[in-house]
Amino acid sequence: MKTFEKEDPRLEGIGWVPDSGPCSGVYVLARGRVLIDAGNMMGLVDHLEEMAPLDSLAHILLTHTHFDHVGGMAEIYQRTAPDVFVHAVAREYARLLRSPFPEFFQALEDAGKIHRVHDGQEIEGTGLKALHAPGHTAGDLCFYHEEAQALFSGDAVLPFRLRFSAILSKPDDLCGGRLQDKVKSLRRLLGLPVKHLFPGHGEPVLHTGANQIKIALVTLYQTLYENPPEKAWLLMAQDLADIGQPEEAAECLKKARALAPASQDVARVSELLGLSA
Ligand SMILES: [Fe+2]
Ligand SMILES: [Fe+2]
């Protein structure tokens, strides 16, 4: 298990079990009391016990209920029975998992172990606030730790350099995923002070986490608006100006100007924002 307190003392008590193959990474917080996602790796419990005895595990917070994020629960519940925190919509989509997982979730429900989490909810005893971030699925949650400026993003934001990042975070329409919701969610996350990004797949991005949100959003704009090519940069410039980052907004305007030197839209947005392209 990898820890991060050497990089930033505010990350003390956080551990990461990296993803391998078809499974998400797993984050351990509060010295073993809290997990974010359960991955789907062999021997998860052994990794977890490197930090604390499994009995200390009290909460599993789920970013969503895709199999690669919940499969590891089977191994955990053979030994202990933590409470599960999940968005109501993601709980619904657990019925699409392969058997026996729908029955497993129902058994947890019957035992009073499932807690439905709403947007903005502080998860007691964790220092984390849940943020509903639909787009990849309709029930995605991110978890934000304000003090550490750390965002646990599940599949809502994945590191740009990760192979298959676009595939792993794309909207899953069976689970209510929609590109337009993803735009809204990323715009909202862009407004958060995010120093450290702890994604559901790939390596954590320390110190420059916010850049990953920016890259994810502009890439999405480029997917949605291929033509004219400057449009993605103009939208990004407006978003960055909205959150009080005029220098970065001006950089986006320059990119738009380079792509379309004679564009009236570039001139109009530059004037609107009071910035030169
Ligand atoms: Fe995933
Ligand atoms: Fe997913």
UniProtKB/TrEMBL annotation:
This protein's record includes keyword Transport: no
Classification via Pfam families: Lactamase_B
Name of the protein in question: Glyoxylase-like metal-dependent hydrolase (Beta-lactamase superfamily II)
InterPro entries reported for this sequence: Metallo-B-lactamas (IPR001279), RibonucZ/Hydroxyglut_hydro (IPR036866), Sec-metab_biosynth-thioest (IPR050662)
Keyword annotations: Hydrolase
KW Hydrolase (keyword) present: yes
Highest rank taxon of the organism: Bacteria
Species: Desulfosoma caldarium
Boundaries of every Metallo-beta-lactamase domain copy: 22-201
MF GO annotations: hydrolase activity
